[in-house]
Every structure is written in C-alpha cells, then in structure tokens.
Amino acid sequence: MLKDFVVEALELATNVEEHLLTLERHPDDLEILNAVFRAFHTIKGGAGFVNLPAMVSACHLTENLFDALRTGKAPVTPLAIEAALQASGFVADQLNELSN
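and the corresponding structure tokens:
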C-alpha cells in the first residue's frame, strides 16, 4: 500500500511542478489552480492514510493557499507559487526517501 501511494504521489508532485511553472505565465488559469488544489488534496489524503503527518501538514497548508487562490480570495503571486513549489519539493523529497 505504501509503495502504491509513493508512486501515485510522486506523479502528482511532478505534475504540480509543471502546473506551477505554467501558472507563472498564466496566473488566471482556473483549470491549473484547481488541478494543483486537487493534487495536494489527494496527496494529503494518502499521506494521512499511511501516517505521514509532516506531509499531511504541508499539503494541508498548500491546499488552503490554493483554495484561496482559486476562489479569488487571494491573488496569484510569485510568492504563492514559490511556496507551492517548496511544498511540492518537500513532498517529493519525502516520497523519494520512502522509496529507497
């Protein structure tokens, strides 16, 4: 079960990074904002299931940020994108450690 989670979450984290780089060029793209939100939501759920509380926390914070961005409660800024890239990097690092 852990192995399946790691494989799926690594794919999602990779997709998130690609989406975030696109979002830098198209900050009003609601489809990308929703995709990033869903990816962090999915990773958070899986991380909770396999008992990875630090990953759950990072994903939860980023999920909250993207909820505010996608609903227009906060603007998409370079700082917001950088925060999400940092969270995605943290998730990928944790997943890579688990896969070794």
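(Above: one complete record from the training split.) The radius of gyration is 13 Å.
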